[in-house]
Specification:
The chain is built from 3 helices and 5 strands. The chain is of the alpha+beta class. Strands 1-3-4-5-2 form a 5-stranded antiparallel β-sheet, covered by helices on one side. The model has no long low-confidence stretch (mean pLDDT 96).
């Protein structure tokens, strides 16, 4: 089996459609990239939507927190670093840091609290070992 990736790096480039009336990256895209990087990290560690379908449970976001440090602009290449910082019985916290590649500037720090939910009942359910076993908790993002 493939080695587990503890801290995942997801690269994106700011496009014209993502610029707001303040002439910088619209805040919406930070949340989108948080989700995209988490999905990509899961896939890299062998967990796909098919995995969740098979076990009959998936993740629902409970909360997002973002602290903006500096704006991003059209054409900026951004690296989103993400990892699982905590995984409990039914909840998990994923952290993120956004950096501009060109100058290494920290643009934002963020986290999402996820709840593992049964796909049929819609109620929280214990996180399966086959999910927990595919991640290494980090405290050094």
């Amino acid at each position: 089996m493939k080695e587990i990736v503890k801290i995942f790096e997801h690269r994106v480039k700011v496009t014209e459609n993502e610029i707001d009336f303040n002439n910088h990256l619209n805040n919406f895209y930070y949340v989108k990239w948080m989700q995209d990087s988490g999905i990509a990290h899961s896939k890299e560690n062998g967990i796909t939507f098919e995995t969740y379908e098979k076990i009959g449970a998936t993740w629902f976001a409970k909360s997002h927190h973002i602290e903006y440090k500096a704006p991003a602009y059209l054409g900026d290449e951004i690296v989103v670093k993400t990892c699982i910082s905590d995984i409990g019985k039914i909840k998990s916290t994923r952290k993120y840091k956004f950096y501009r590649v060109e100058d290494g500037k920290l643009l934002a720090i963020a986290e999402t609290l996820w709840v593992f939910v049964d796909m049929i009942s819609g109620r929280p359910t214990p996180i399966k070992d086959e999910i927990k076993d595919r991640f290494i908790v980090c405290d050094d993002l």
